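Run: sequence + adenosine-5'-triphosphate -> complex structure.
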Amino acid sequence: MPSDHPTWLVHDPVDEHELGTLRSGKEAQIDVVERVGADGRTCLLARKRYLPRTVTTKGQLEALGVQRSSAFRHDVEYREGRQFRKTRDRRAVEAMTTYGRKLLQDRWLGHEHDVLAQLHAAGCRVPYPVSYADDVLLMEYVGAADGAAPQLAAARLSPAEVRRAWHDVVEGLRGITSAGWAHGDLSAYNLLWWEGEVWFIDFPQAVDIAANPGGLSFLHRDVTNVLGWFVRHGIEEDPEEVFADLLGAAFG
Ligand SMILES: Nc1ncnc2c1ncn2[C@@H]1O[C@H](COP(=O)(O)OP(=O)(O)OP(=O)(O)O)[C@@H](O)[C@H]1O
Ligand SMILES: [Mg+2]
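>> structure
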């Protein structure tokens, strides 16, 4: 379980070695890093470096093309309900001024760390977030020295393992919903399968289900998306029932 992460290394590292890039995608690059503690013990961490996804000038926005700019507007939809306490900040964000975009970008990047910290503390199976600074999130690595945990979509599970994974996903969703969050981009690509258990990853777009007016729609979409994969792998469940069960767990 996540709770047995080696805190001694997290708080007192003496050295760090790069072990290579795990994945380099459109949103983030994930590298594996080995940390060495004062007594010579080591542990592996995943380092997520966010690639520039938001823009700070109109020119950059245009240079990135329509797809990027619509993705950026989508970010704003995710962000509704996350409070900008100062009226000046809120207005800047709504008007999408340069300053407003900068505020959004900063908030976006630290968000995954904060959500992971809350979910980990609530007992959900998510990587322990070690630190966040300068666009880099350092977190618990799921996997072994000779290979990372596969995404669920690539894990080639037996029918019994699919049932086990579905059980984990429902349990995980209950924990995440009860903690007040919707993942916002849940799919078999953002779940890892490791030693017979499902881990939830990739939370930068997580939404607060109470504060965000669209929060429950995001949750509903998460359930539909992820269940779609399980149905194709032989699980028979009704997304509406699963959704209702989650609402019951969160608000009941
Ligand atoms: N803590 C971790 N331990 C092991 N593997 C990880 C970890 N975090 C991420 N990965 C691997 O890196 C991949 C990408 O990470 P993540 O989903 O967080 O980023 P992303 O924003 O989806 O990036 P991209 O759009 O480039 O896929 C994951 O699907 C997983 O295979
Ligand atoms: Mg992902």
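>> summary
Residues 98-121 form the longest helix (24 residues). Residues 147-251 form a domain with the Transferase(Phosphotransferase); domain 1 fold (CATH 1.10.510.10).
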